[in-house]
Amino acid sequence: MSDSESMPAPAPSRVRSRSPEPMLPGMDLSELATTDTALTTTAPSTTATAKKVVRKIIRKKRRPARPQVDPATFKTEPPPQTGVTFNIWYNKWSGGDRESSAASQTGAKGRCNVAKDSGYTQADSINGSYFCLFFARGLCPKGSDCPYLHRLPMITDIFNPNVDCFGRDKFSDYRDDMGGVGSFLRPNRTVYVGRIHVSDDIEEIVARHFAEWGQIERTRVLNTKGVAFITYSNEANAQFAKEAMAHQSLDHEEVLNVRWATVDPNPMAQAREARRVEEQAAAAIRAVLPADYIAELEGRDPDTNTKVVGGASKRRRIEGGFGLQGYEAPDKVWYAREQQLGEQMEEQDEHAQAQELSQLHGGEGAPQAPDAVEASSAGVLSSATLAALARQRERSTGLVIKAAKETKPIGALVSYDSDSDEE
């Protein structure tokens, strides 16, 4: 077999051959080549089809809370005897306000791992649910069937000040050893931690272990004594951390002594706490007051939200003089006047709404609009004070203001009589 017979025939090409274009006068060969190239490259783009891109959104489902211990091996034990009489209502020994020395030296049986143990439970579908105390201690055997929350407290979790985040009742005073639930008379966000193993990196160790339970506002460590004070931003996180770190150990084999911290005697700390309470009170008041009133107090224009120099004080100087030159009403009179104006505006709004309802219903049986409530003449100022102010206005402006005559009420028609002879 010859070489020409052994080689297969080439496949026919689907590309149509183009006839050479005639060369125009004055046209170069390079221009002709460029034109052919442009036509060759743009031809496939017309036949290409656009591919539809579909994006699939994958939503992760919340995982259920896992049991921290085996339910078959979990046993509830009565609290150790620290008193003389056992109170079955509070499930504690009465008369003993201090933890026994043996119990304080015993390590915890479990520890909560928030990253692995947290999840949804039956309490997530119920508003106002409390947190699981056994979950904080790492000993909850119920998992997703638990009627309490298995997660960390957040700033949105608000509870009654008489109970803690676990639903336990607080008392009027702390225990002698600053343990227990705590007091409802003083909100406490600082936890005392003792018996810490002293090392060079003690501050880093304390911050790393206690940051698991919430946002920390301030940490103070006494390196030589092995003592630390941790202040959380939220009180519920401090309550959770106290139970979660009780009798635990850090990076060494120590057994921590976790209690509530007493009042800080440092004047700077007391001033800082008082400032924080004032800021919270101001934020609560700001949420209740209308925006226009807040803008006026802050000296801002409510429409443009720009700073106005002397806005509230200027308005008070103008309107607080009650038309008397050089007179400025005291705070009591000014705020009473503002309150009266607010009440009058509310009454006018109610009257306008009643008129609109009467117009909408119309016909017989339509609700009658209440009569306009006249402004009471008896205000905050006495009649003698008003008369003195009127005389002062007459001297300053030269205008004589006459008081309106009081109209006597009309008696009953039975006693009606007239002295005129024309009747």
UniProtKB/TrEMBL annotation:
**Which terms does the record give in the GO molecular function aspect?**
pre-mRNA binding; U6 snRNA binding; zinc ion binding
Give the location in the cell: Nucleus
Which biological processes are named by the entry's GO terms? Answer: mRNA processing; RNA splicing
Main function: Involved in the first step of pre-mRNA splicing. Required for cell growth and cell cycle control. Plays a role in the levels of the U1, U4, U5 and U6 snRNAs and the maintenance of the U4/U6 snRNA complex. May provide the link between the 'nineteen complex' NTC spliceosome protein complex and the spliceosome through the U6 snRNA. Associates predominantly with U6 snRNAs in assembled active spliceosomes. Binds directly to the internal stem-loop (ISL) domain of the U6 snRNA and to the pre-mRNA intron near the 5' splice site during the activation and catalytic phases of the spliceosome cycle.
Q: Where is the composition biased (Basic residues)?
A: 52-65
Q: Which SUPFAM superfamilies does the entry link to?
A: CCCH zinc finger, RNA-binding domain, RBD
Cellular component GO terms held in the UniProt record: post-mRNA release spliceosomal complex; Prp19 complex; U2-type catalytic step 1 spliceosome; U2-type catalytic step 2 spliceosome
In the UniProt record, does the keyword Heme occur?
Answer: no
Record organism = Ophiostoma piceae (strain UAMH 11346) (Sap stain fungus)
Keywords in alphabetical order:
Cell cycle, Metal-binding, mRNA processing, mRNA splicing, Nucleus, RNA-binding, Spliceosome, Zinc, Zinc-finger
Give positions of region: Disordered: 1-78, 342-377
Source organism superkingdom = Eukaryota
Name of this chain's protein: Pre-mRNA-splicing factor CWC2
